[in-house]
User: Fold this.
Amino acid sequence: MNVTRVTPGEIAAIEFDAATIALAVGRLAAAVVEDLRGEPVTLVGVLKGALFLTADLARALPPETNVALDFIAVSSYGGAERSSGEVRLLKDTSERLEGKNVVIVEDIVDNGLTLRYLQGLIAGRSPASLRSCVLLDKPYRRSVPVAIDYIGLTAPDTFIVGYGLDYQEKYRNLPYLASLHNWVFETPQSRPSKGIG
Ligand code: PRP
Assistant:
């Protein structure tokens, strides 16, 4: 891929191109299927970042898999500069999860607060099983321990955008995962409160 020709100016480097992402999603789907042993599954995508991952993961599952799709949205940062440490539910799932084999689908895990909150919330609804699937992990950034069943890729310690991840709502549409230049964050007003997109 020609970085200088196809990327916007704030993009420093493509960390994972579309083919690498597709391979990772394929590996995640294979691992999910193996654990399901033919049972139905409900994928719960975490908006907005996991929008594309959820769609691609669902389509990477074998066609005979009984797949339901649902979405949930949370916020731990709101408009604040730093995390309050509290995760707020913005949009709940539309279906009941009791008795279902649920897989939480997250784009990235950074400090771990969001996924830990979601696991607690959904576990309280008595699913038949509950697993977590994450495309990008930053294990060195945890402030709380969190168990992840399926991990696609380990992310570098840079601000990552693309494939659902944003910077100030930009770049979600990029088909690859990329790092932004440091100069993007040089003014205090634009500095992100966490190192993820
Ligand atoms: C991001 C990401 C995860 C969460 C991970 O969402 O999509 O949901 O943060 O962060 P944590 O491990 O530090 O808790 P964000 O709040 O940026 O919302 P978005 O998905 O709508 O972009």
